[in-house]
Specification:
32% of the residues lie in helices and 26% in strands. The chain is α+β, with helices and mostly antiparallel strands and 136 residues long. The chain has a single domain (3-114), classed as Beta-Lactamase (2-Layer Sandwich). Strands 2-1-6-5-4-3 form a 6-stranded antiparallel β-sheet, with helices on both faces. The longest helix has 17 residues, at 117-133. GO terms for molecular function: actin monomer binding.
């Protein structure tokens, strides 16, 4: 495992409040690491990183599936709960998707219906703050 995979597993997945996660390179949209079993398609990774450049559309339409210029993550569309230049929080039913930006990376994480959204947010934001403090 690379260091980012270790961080994903140790800081996110092992909390049992994050279902899956990936670290994306903000400027290129490539995948630096993903949790075991998570496959992030290149077009989805680029769309997730691009969401920060189109916050107004994300706030209005969420991360929709099947519309021109939009995308899905794990074949699901998500409605936007919060979107600013640092974080995007989305939800679909009891499931959620979080995107949190650091200087160089974007952490994408999901939680399932049986997980507490607030604890997932806390874990993801804490990892993002750690990366920011390290200059990443």
């Amino acid at each position: 495992m690379n260091p980012f995979q270790n961080l994903i597993v140790d800081c996110l997945i092992n909390t049992k409040h994050v279902e899956s996660a990936a670290v994306l390179v903000a400027h290129s949209g490539s995948v630096a690491a993903a949790s075991p079993g998570l496959r992030v398609r290149p077009r989805d990774a680029q769309a997730l990183t691009g969401a920060f450049r189109r916050l107004a559309a994300v706030r209005e339409r969420g991360l929709e599936r099947g519309l021109s210029g939009s995308f899905s993550f794990q074949e699901e569309g998500f409605g936007c709960v919060r979107a600013d230049r640092i974080s995007i929080y989305c939800k679909r039913g009891g499931r959620g998707l979080l995107l949190v930006r650091t200087g160089l990376f974007i952490i994408a994480a999901t939680y399932s219906e049986d997980m507490l959204p607030g604890v997932c947010v806390e874990a993801v934001e804490a990892l993002a703050e750690y990366l920011r403090q390290k200059g990443k």
